[in-house]
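Action item from last meeting closed. Structure (194 res):
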């Protein structure tokens, strides 16, 4: 989308796709001839690419720019900062906000959340299925990859308990959540008092 808006051709690598991963077996050879925007999605699967990216980013005339996307574990951020110091900027991408979807859609935003596939789903059931799959992926794959070694069902019960507590507790903090640093929890103010 970024390349389309700028009128620039882009080369995209999805590192969850085995074909793209195989194309990057020799990263310098695969990336060096490319020009324009090069998108590397799901970079957390290939932290070994940061050192070759440093070499490519230092070429005279910068024939290619690299847009690196993926889940940001503390180790990944540290690795990228060490390998690409002075060459990288980190941006957290929030979900869609009311400014983007319009205040008239506040109820849909509240129900479906700000992730575009959930918010833009054709109906509430499709949105719910997408969110359930997101939670399953987060609990079964993403959190363990960040080093949290608890069974997915234990995490699911914790999240349900936390959600129930937050709904009934207003803005008080949940004591256990302070100790579970790996969980991506954000305080969400209640829309109205229950």
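Sequence:
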């Amino acid at each position: 989308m970024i390349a389309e808006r700028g009128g620039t051709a882009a080369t995209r690598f999805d590192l969850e796709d085995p074909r793209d991963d195989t194309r990057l077996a020799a990263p310098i050879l695969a990336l060096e001839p490319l020009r324009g925007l090069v998108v590397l999605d799901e970079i957390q699967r290939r932290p070994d690419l940061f050192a070759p990216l440093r070499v490519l980013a230092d070429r005279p005339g910068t024939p290619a720019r690299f847009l690196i996307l993926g889940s940001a574990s503390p180790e990944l951020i540290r690795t990228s900062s060490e390998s690409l110091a002075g060459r990288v900027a980190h941006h957290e991408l929030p979900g869609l906000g009311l400014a983007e979807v319009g205040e008239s859609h506040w109820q849909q935003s509240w129900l479906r959340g700000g992730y575009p596939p959930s918010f833009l789903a054709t109906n509430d059931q499709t949105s719910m299925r997408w969110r359930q799959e997101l939670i399953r992926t987060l609990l079964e794959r993403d959190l363990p990859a960040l080093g949290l070694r608890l069974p997915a069902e234990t995490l699911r019960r914790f999240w349900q308990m936390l959600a129930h507590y937050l709904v009934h507790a207003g803005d008080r903090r949940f004591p256990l959540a302070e100790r579970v640093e790996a969980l991506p929890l954000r305080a969400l103010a209640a829309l109205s008092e229950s």
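Note appended to the action item: The longest strand covers residues 36-41.
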